[in-house]
Amino acid sequence: MAALPLATAEVCDANSELIKNGELRALEPIFRIYGRRQIFAGPVVTLKLFEDNVLLREFLEEKGHGRVLVVDGGGSTRCAILGGNLAQLAQNNGWAGIVINGCIRDVDEINGCDIGVRALNSHPIKSNKKGVGEKHVPVNIAGTRIHDGEWLYADTDGILISRSELTV
């Protein structure tokens, strides 16, 4: 189910009508780029949590099948919700990427993984382990509402969300 990586700038240039009608949206440029995959794409799975990564681990323990996990971590910069062990788990289970509205840690380990990761920043403190959060719910990240099942396209120019899979 892995999507063909598309250049986000070219996608925007070729799809002005989809941008106008809201079917194609660009996230605000607030994310830093981590992981060996600078370009990734796939169907979205959403997760909403705050300073707790138990549900994040549960998702990444599943087979990813080329999907992208979009995590609304509430924009917290007080702790990391993704570290090197979870990034390795995501890589091994076939996730294409992870976008986190929050922080990561173990940056060198994550940068060694063959997965795309976007996050606000890094932070050395680990998250709580209470298991609190919501799976498969709409999330609001970087000025954009994102739904489970939409498509995400990321490269070094930015991140796009589309209601359906795009082709070149």
Figure out the total of helices: 5
Distance between the termini: 17 Å
* Approximate strand percentage: 25-35%
Shape: globular
Low-confidence parts: none
**Biggest beta sheet attributes:** 10 strands, mixed
* Helix/strand order: HHEEEHEEHEHEEEEEE
Spatial extent as radius of gyration: 15 Å
- The overall pLDDT, averaged over residues, is 95
The strand count comes to 12
The proportion of residues forming helix, as a percent range, comes to 10-25%
Helix-and-strand structural type:
alpha/beta
Short synopsis of the structure:
20% of the residues lie in helices and 33% in strands. The protein has helices at residues 8-14, 16-20, 54-60, 84-92, 107-111, and strands at residues 24-26, 32-34, 40-48, 68-72, 80-82, 97-104, 116-122, 134-135, 139-141, 144-146, 151-155, 158-162.
Description:
It is a single chain. With 168 residues, the protein is of the alpha/beta class. 20% of the residues lie in helices and 33% in strands. The chain has five helices and twelve strands. Strands 1, 2, 3, 4, 5, 6, 7, 8, 11 and 12 form a ten-stranded mixed sheet that branches. The chain has a two-stranded antiparallel ribbon with strand order 9-10. α5 (107-111) links the parallel β6 (97-104) and β7 (116-122).
